[in-house]
Amino acid sequence: MSATVAMTVPFVRAIADLREHVRVWRAAGERVALVPTMGALHAGHLSLVAEARRRAERAIVSIFVNPTQFGPAEDFANYPRSLDADLERLESVGADLCYAPSVETMYPQGFATTLHLEGPAKADLEDRFRPTHFSGVATVVAKLLNQAQADIAVFGEKDYQQLLVVRRLARDLDMKTQIIAAPTLREDDGLAMASRNVYLSLEERRAAPALYKALVDCARKIVAGEPIGDVMGKAREALATLGFSVDYLEARHGETLAHIARRQDGPVRLLVAARLGKTRLIDNLAV
Ligand code: PAF
User: Does any domain span residue 98?
Assistant: First the structure.
């Protein structure tokens, strides 16, 4: 009887090893892409890797559950971690390297620097409910971009405010890495793929697609000419009736996240965050 050995992508934990891979690829004239993740990889992440592979000869995926982007009452300790399965998944989609640094590598003794953000990080959306989140995200993303020195980095539109924060950061700090946005991958019933979906009970999982349906319904009404304020207000009430505790459901300018009252002042982006039981779901849609 022959045992099957799972194939996994090579992985490194040290910055010097990451840079050595990048140096060798560059010397061979290859373009390098980075896909930053916190692991617990699902098909949505794998689609980011596929996008990276379309645009560059080499794709690195970083896996780091970043403590500084979790609030004190959030799920850092319980955040799903599955490195072995992640490495197999990465092999199956042709990633070239996984970079999985330790907390000590990313935040060594004496670490004392965080980024102070304005602009899209202060839009009164995620930041209203997670006030320290984006400075943690920006600090770790700046470090990852700096460590990898990749030509491009791919981020999902699923975390739309994060995407705009990272774009701003890369511009403002003159990062050489180009930021690429990749579309949200959805389950067949419309639910946006997310690592935290595993927290949903069966009943909550059945209810969850209503969030995306609400966005689609709002977009259709706005396109049909209904006033944005009315549309969003009614959708908030409808979601509450379905058992969602809505943090926000708003129409914003798609590039600046400024409030928007009329479609012609767009592009309009609809953004939602709502809790079902203990699970917080976010989603967004272009109108
Ligand atoms: O989107 C995520 O998974 C994280 O916020 C990121 C960008 C990897 C930073 O930790």
Answer: yes
CA–centroid distance, 61 to ligand 1, in Å, is 11
Distance 181 CA to ligand 1 centre (A): 13
Residue 5 domain-assigned (yes or no): no
153 Cβ inside 6 Å of ligand 1: no
Residue 1 domain flag:
no
In this prediction, residue 8 carries a pLDDT of: 83
User: Which pLDDT band holds residue 5 (cuts at 50, 70, 90)?
Assistant: low
Q: Is the CB of 159 inside a 6 Å radius of any atom of ligand 1?
A: yes
The protein residue whose alpha carbon is closest to atom 3 in ligand 1 is 37
Of the two residues 266 and 120, the one the predictor is more confident about is 120
What percent of the residues of the chain are helix, what percent strand, and what percent coil, each to the nearest 5? Answer: 45, 20, 40
Q: Kindly indicate the confidence band of residue 266, based on its pLDDT and cuts at 50, 70 and 90.
A: confident
* Ligand 1 centroid to residue 65 C-alpha, Å: 8
The whole domain housing 207 covers: 195-286
- Please count the structural domains in the chain: 2
| pTM: predicted TM-score of the whole model, two decimal places | 0.95
